[in-house]
Amino acid sequence: MKIMKLLIIGASRGIGKALLEEALKEDLQVRVLARDPEKIEATNDALEIVRGDVRDLDDVSNGIQGMDVVCSCIGVPITFKPVDLFAVAARNLAQAVEREPGQKLIAVTGIGAGDSKGHGGFLYDRIFKPLFLRTIYDDKDREEEIIMA
User: Alpha-carbon distance 75 to 61, whole Å?
Assistant: First the structure.
């Protein structure tokens, strides 16, 4: 039986970190692409940590080579400044995955991005998201558009 090879981008915290922990429990072959490899706390013989930035197409292309599935779990802290990380990452991932036949791309965005708009409940959709997450979700919307194209 073939062991699935999984690349996780954004594995130092949150969903990406949880995915990494679960993937290693399931005996998957896991590679992590990380700007700061020292922030990856997990250790395992089935884990390969590669230094790279999702904003760099060459880093992404090198990171995904030989992987069956690529999962982007990137995130940013709350900010009121313009955000472009998600769209830049999506462009690089879409371009790199297109060159790898049979490879699957999964992007974890968030409730309220793309076609999930309006599903976060009143407080989230009408207060929290517009006041604190607008710049982030504007970019997450662009990310979903790029990936779905």
Answer: 20
Can you list the pairs that 45-51 forms with residues at least 24 positions away whose Cβ atoms lie under 8 Å?
47/20
Query: Can you tell me which residue has the tokens 């062991």?
Result: 3
Tokens 């790279």 found at: 52
CA distance 146 to 103: 17
Q: Taking Cα atoms as reference points, which of 66, 68, 86, 67 lies closest to residue 76?
A: 86
Q: Are 33 and 54 in contact (CB under 8 A)?
A: yes
Domains delineated in the chain: 5-148 (3.40.50.720)
pLDDT 10s digits, 85-128: 999 999 999 999 999 989 999 999 988 888 888 888 999 999 99
pTM: 0.93
Residue pair 40/12 in contact by the 8 Å Cβ criterion: yes
